[in-house]
């Protein structure tokens, strides 16, 4: 699969720190990181196991205060996302930090471990439920296709998970993304990863699975 020309966007976001949806299709209810594969290969890659835990992110303390917390693999480093000052910076920051009614709150950098980035978003409308929040988030990506949704469990919490393919409007390069959404402390939280030139599915998914398996509210 050709990779979307998103390296510059990834670098910018690090520095400044769903159109129609398909119906649920063969979507088992289970953990966000199931103990046994339920859908081998693309698009879900359920056979990919969670990475070993070596840190954590979220909760009330730490660099990224969030209404949820979850474990991180070794060498995955969280930091809050901050929009820079100035007119041009505000425009750039708006484009990079908001999508489909959600705002990115934290970025977890796994590049030292070969894992790309994991980002945590919160829905701007505190009343929106997990499914519509995730649908809007997916729809906010570039030229979305092949989107699928399923009901899962993230830790001990009911969640909705999505996978989809986005296509760059400039280069027509494509990449696949995954995200799950949960309700926590009166707000919807979304955790997302995307393939890029930096990381492919099997690089990203162990950290993403660990987030889903270990998530707790509060």
Describe this structure in words.
By secondary structure, the chain is α+β, with helices and mostly antiparallel strands. It is built from 4 helices and 11 strands. Strands 3, 4, 5, 6, 7, 8, 9 and 10 form an 8-stranded antiparallel β-sheet that branches. A 3-stranded antiparallel β-sheet has the order 1-2-11. The protein is globular and about 45 Å long.
Quick tags:
single chain, 218 residues, alpha+beta, eight-stranded antiparallel sheet, three-stranded antiparallel sheet, 4 helices, disordered N terminus
Number of strands: 11
Determine the strand fraction and express it as a percent band. Answer: 25-35%
Major β-sheet, in short? 8 strands, antiparallel
- What class do helices, strands and sheet pairing give? alpha+beta
Number of helices: 4
Question: Which word captures the global form?
Answer: globular
The low-confidence runs, each spanning 5 or more residues with pLDDT under 50, are 1-36
Task: Give the integer mean of the pLDDT values.
Answer: 82
Order of helices and strands: HEEEHEEEHEEEEHE
Radius of gyration: 16 Å
Distance between the termini: 38 Å
Short overview:
This protein has helices at residues 7-15, 87-97, 130-139, 201-214; strands at 55-59, 66-72, 77-80, 98-99, 102-109, 117-123, 144-154, 157-167, 174-184, 187-194, 216-217. With 218 residues, the protein is an alpha+beta fold.
Q: Topology of this protein?
A:
Blueprint: H1 7-15, E1 55-59, E2 66-72, E3 77-80, H2 87-97, E4 98-99, E5 102-109, E6 117-123, H3 130-139, E7 144-154, E8 157-167, E9 174-184, E10 187-194, H4 201-214, E11 216-217
Antiparallel strand pairs: 1-2, 2-11, 3-5, 4-5, 5-6, 6-10, 7-8, 8-9, 9-10
């Amino acid at each position: 699969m050709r990779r979307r020309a998103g390296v510059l966007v990834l670098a910018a976001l690090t520095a400044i720190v769903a159109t129609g949806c398909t119906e649920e299709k063969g979507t088992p209810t289970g953990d966000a990181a199931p103990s046994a594969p339920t859908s081998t290969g693309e698009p879900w890659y359920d056979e990919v196991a969670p990475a070993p835990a070596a840190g954590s992110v979220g909760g009330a303390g730490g660099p990224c205060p969030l209404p949820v917390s979850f474990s991180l693999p070794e060498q995955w480093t969280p930091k809050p996302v901050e929009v820079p000052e100035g007119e041009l910076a505000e425009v750039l920051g708006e484009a990079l930090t908001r999508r489909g009614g959600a705002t990115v709150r934290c970025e977890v950098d796994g590049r030292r471990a070969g894992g790309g980035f994991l980002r945590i978003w919160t829905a701007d409308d505190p009343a929106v439920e997990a499914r519509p929040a995730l649908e809007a988030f997916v729809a906010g990506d570039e030229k979305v296709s092949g989107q699928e949704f399923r009901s899962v469990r993230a830790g001990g919490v009911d969640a909705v998970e999505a996978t989809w393919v986005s296509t760059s409007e400039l280069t027509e390069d494509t990449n696949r993304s995954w995200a799950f959404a949960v309700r926590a402390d009166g707000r919807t939280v979304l955790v997302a990863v995307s393939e890029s030139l930096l990381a492919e599915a099997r690089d990203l998914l162990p950290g993403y699975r660990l987030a889903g398996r270990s998530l707790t509210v509060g």
